[in-house]
Automatic annotation (TrEMBL):
Signal peptide bounds: 1-24
PROSITE patterns registered for this protein in UniProt: C_TYPE_LECTIN_1 (PS00615), C_TYPE_LECTIN_2 (PS50041)
Keyword terms, alphabetized: Disulfide bond, Signal
Pfam families the UniProt entry points to: Lectin_C (PF00059)
SMART domains referenced in this protein's UniProt entry, alphabetically: CLECT (SM00034)
Organism, as annotated: Amphiprion percula (Orange clownfish)
Coiled coil: none
Protein name: C-type lectin domain-containing protein
Superkingdom of the source species: Eukaryota
Species classification: Eukaryota, Metazoa, Chordata, Craniata, Vertebrata
UniProt KW Disulfide bond keyword: yes
Keyword Disulfide bond: yes
Domain C-type lectin: 37-151
Alphabetical list of SUPFAM superfamilies matching this protein: C-type lectin-like (SSF56436)
Amino acid sequence: PCRTGAYKVVVLLMFITLQCQCLTQSTNSIKRPDKSYHATRYSFIDIPLNWYEAQRFCRVKFTDLVTINNMYNNNKLLDALGGQVSLTWIGLHRGASDRWMWADGGGEALFTRWTEGEPNQLAADEWCAEASSSGRWNDVSCAEKKDFICYDRE
């Protein structure tokens, strides 16, 4: 009889914990100055960081740096951010295989929106990608400090 009672207490505590987490997450989501569409929330972060710092920030506060898989998402992201995108980090970087990969583990970038002549590896250390207000991308040094865009799956 004692085991059954203990089990019920554990289940109840798990339920209460889950409810508290959901309430906390909902409250945080409401406070963020984000614009959403579909099941993804994008956040423009106005804190200049290098690409790796920006990625760490996004992984702690959200899901990761933004992944852009097609032209529809690229345009929707630009619309949602209302012109705030001006040379900001996105989650694209050159991987060990010398291919452009998404930071969230989504694999090689099959869709790209490079500015004409890019990526050009003009400097030897241009391993990360920035997006401009036109929605075009450029390869730049990951050490540069830029604002960035995070995404959060809801």
